[in-house]
């Protein structure tokens, strides 16, 4: 008897809390993006840049006023280096950023400022219509540049470095 009523209470509270979270935390946005390996160590994309599957990224929103964290979610990139992070609620007057956290590749795990973070707008208050926000590409720098890099960079119009 005690067991049964306890069970009922647990079930009821699960129902209520999921109803509440459904009402309060409707998924409004999605942040999508890709994580690459900078195989030429140049901090911009080349045709030799490789997508990194299994990389961890984190979306974090902070209040502009006191920098308190209001939302935080992690995701792992799929086979093509892509990720998709659901966003609940509206994040007006907040600064939201996606950042790379962890690389699964030992040969490509160096963080660099240019590809470490991307700021995203996650509010409908300023008339943003698209529920899917695409972040700038993120990535890690490879420990050693690929042998094909000098030619690729030359083709892109950069002088060969001795
Ligand atoms: C990887 O994730 C991206 C972003 O969600 C998606 O567009 C793409 O179709 C996914 N690819 C695979 C192979 O699942």
From TrEMBL:
Pfam families, sorted: Pollen_Ole_e_1 (PF01190)
Signal peptide positions (record): 1-25
InterPro entries in alphabetical order: Pollen_Ole_e1_allergen (IPR006041)
Domain of life of the organism encoding this protein: Eukaryota
Membrane spanning stretches: none
Keywords: Disulfide bond, Signal
Similarity comment text for this entry: Belongs to the Ole e I family.
Protein name: Anther-specific protein LAT52
Organism: Hibiscus syriacus
